[in-house]
Amino acid sequence: MQQLSDLHGRVATDLRVSLTDRCNLRCSYCMPAEGLDWLPGEEVLTDDEVLRLIHIATSRLGVDEVRFTGGEPLVRRGLVDIVAGTAAMVPRPEISMTTNALGLSRTARALADAGLDRVNVSLDTIRPQTFADITRRDRLHDVVAGLEAAQEAGLGPVKINAVLLRGHNDDQAPELLRWAIERSYELRFIEQMPLDAQHGWRRDEMITADEIFASLDREFVLEPASEPRGSAPAELFTVNGGPATVGVIASITRPFCGDCDRVRLTADGQVRNCLFAREESDLRTPLRDGASDDEIAERWIAAVRPKLPGHGINDPSFLQPSRPMSAIGG
Ligand code: SAM
Ligand code: SF4
């Protein structure tokens, strides 16, 4: 088996597949209120094309984990079939999904039956008004129902990803953690990254990991969890002696690029070796021009090799990638 290794000794085994750039929320740190110019339908990979690329990655390139994301993966019509097709692969990868959970209450069972192993649900607040302010939609009840359905369907441990925004929900970390622990959801806070379409991110406005710890420390005793972190982006802490944990993904203030094992495929068939990469490698054109699996695998290997050692956000020369998070696949 070949590997997706780069010049700095890292090997990518975790494939993030964006199934669409479209979304039914408008989180202010991700998209403008009016949405974006969505990819034209013919540029988006078909279900069969997505499955062929995943198969090449898992059968030839050592990928053992596939995470579906977007945009919002639940708005992709063929999602259940894509999950089922991935679960039927030999070797079978771990299959997870990052979602805003709108509509998950209706599809969680079918997704679990198709082979989905786990979900990460994005939820930044449990206050309806704050939710509507941040996402520009009054849909908190849908997310809560989606979380419950995911847990009932066995898509656990159900994780929650939360982004704190100054002046909106930065005072709500303890209540979100309490709420998550009561329901056995594993909460992770993510530092806001410069990946919004509006280029509105400001280093001095983001809520840092240190601020998150300070806010949680006022109510909880956090201690580093003993399990090794490995390539996981979250630093894990036990809460009040455990077994509950909380994670902090400090992409900006404590970058973990040296341990990164991820590679990304956009909805239009471009490989990105990093969220912050400024270059992409086109797999869709060769795929549609009749390239063999071997040829596509070679292109994929070549795309990962030059992955930079770090994202460079803290360098003065940092330039935000031209595609926003919703188009790359978070
Ligand atoms: N729509 C799905 C969702 O929200 O879970 C999947 C795609 S979304 C782009 C993936 C993750 O990226 C979400 O957890 C979201 O909170 C996070 N995200 C989006 N923009 C971000 C930003 N600028 N900084 C940090 N995280 C961001
Ligand atoms: Fe949609 Fe996810 Fe972006 Fe929110 S973070 S606008 S749910 S893609």
What do these coordinates show?
This protein has helices at 47-60, 79-87, 104-114, 128-135, 140-152, 173-182, 209-217, 284-288, 293-304, 325-328, and strands spanning 4-5, 11-12, 14-18, 65-69, 94-99, 118-122, 159-163, 186-190, 222-224, 235-239, 245-249, 262-265, 270-272, 281-282. The protein contains ten helices and 14 strands. The strands form two sheets. The chain has a twelve-stranded mixed β-sheet with strand order 9-10-11-8-7-6-5-4-3-12-13-14. A two-stranded antiparallel ribbon has the order 1-2. It is an alpha/beta fold and 330 residues long. It has a single domain (4-328), classed as TIM Barrel, CATH 3.20.20.70. S-adenosylmethionine is lined by residues 23, 29-30, 69-70, 72, 98-100, 122, 161, 163, 190, 192-193, 195-196, 325-326, 330.
Please give a quick description of this structure.
The protein is an alpha/beta fold and 330 residues long. The chain has a single domain, classed as Aldolase class I (TIM Barrel), CATH 3.20.20.70. Strand 7, helix 6 and strand 8 form a beta-alpha-beta unit.
Mean pLDDT: 94
Tell me the CATH architecture.
Alpha-Beta Barrel
The profile of the biggest β sheet is:
12 strands, mixed
Bound molecules: S-adenosylmethionine, iron/sulfur cluster
